[in-house]
Amino acid sequence: ALSVIDFVGQQTRDDRMVRNFGVAHMLAVAYSASIGGVGTLIGSPPNAMLASFVQQTYGIEVSFARWMMIGLPVVVVMLPLTWLLLTRLLFPAHTIKVGDAGALVRAEIAAIGSMGRGERLVAVVFGGAALGWMLREPLARLTGLPLDDAMIALTAALILFAVPLSRGTGRYALDWAATRDLPWGILLLFGGGMALASGFSTSGLARVIGESVAGIDIPTVFLVLAVLTAMVYLTEITSNTASTATFLPILGAVAVGLELDVLTLTVPVALGASMAFMMPVATPPNAIVFAYDRMRLSDMVRAGFLMNVIAIAVALAVLVLLGPVVLGIAL
């Protein structure tokens, strides 16, 4: 992204247009990373936490393919809206005349070089794992094996541990030394979330919450809107993973108390937790691009507030339109 911005800066002397292009470009990188994470279960920790929580607590399975049928429509709608917002409304740079940008892209690709054996192996294994996640249910019926998403992921990891990069070198695509850099702390958050959910159930707190909200007559669509809005703005100042771990058991209990499907209020938790665009501390992508020297906090807050509004509207629309078909929930 910085290479493209530098290239554009060399094509014009209009500092304002260059700044607009640079800010829009960097925000696009951050926002697309957050939006893309909504598309699959492995794209963002809240998605995986939701699937684990409802499976262990309520026996409801949210498969990789099932989540994609909700997540991908959100991504497909959000990306062009983000482009329009950044390039047409907030940071227009229409007067910039770009030269042969394709030459720059080709030069950068050439500098990377061709894929090595290890890179090809990882691409094939990951592609196979992604395909396995999407086709898990047909594969399970075909093979008769009790396949689940974790089994497919572990199989892919074992292949990377077992297949050598070249004969006689003893080097493999993945070794145990590489695992030291994995974010193992996320497992503590997952475990803490599951322990919190178990505590809600065994202590009777879930029952108390359910009884306290029983009889409340509020249209379901307004409840979902409230959950989406609360999660989006809460995660501007808190960890999305911690917020998800805290509110999944609470809203699961509320859904039971209101005699709603548990997914009605828990899916919005995961969706909203991944849609924080205003503050640098909201997500790692936001923090990274905020280091760009032309970026001001006011730029991110202004764009992020509108992005939050768009995200809430898009997520609500997708849940209203696809929720009954994909998740069996009615809003």
Mean pLDDT: 85
Q: What is the tally of beta strands?
A: 0
Percent helix range: over 70%
Cα separation of the termini: 41 Å
Quaternary structure? single chain
- Count the domains: 1
Shape: globular
What does the largest sheet look like? none
Secondary-structure element pattern, one letter each: HHHHHHHHHHHHHHHH
Instruction: Tell me what portion of residues adopts beta-strand conformation.
Output: under 5%
- Residue ranges: pLDDT <50 for 5 or more in a row? none
**Number of helices, where a helix is a run of at least 4 consecutive DSSP H or I residues:** 16
Structural class: mainly alpha
Radius of gyration over all CA atoms, rounded = 22 Å
Please provide a written account of the structure:
The chain is mainly alpha-helical and 331 residues long. The chain has one domain (2-111, 183-327). It is built from 16 helices and no strands. It has helices at 2-9, 15-37, 45-58, 64-90, 101-112, 117-134, 136-143, 149-162, 176-179, 185-202, 205-213, 220-234, 240-257, 263-273, 284-290, 297-327.
Topology, element by element:
Layout: H1 2-9, H2 15-37, H3 45-58, H4 64-90, H5 101-112, H6 117-134, H7 136-143, H8 149-162, H9 176-179, H10 185-202, H11 205-213, H12 220-234, H13 240-257, H14 263-273, H15 284-290, H16 297-327
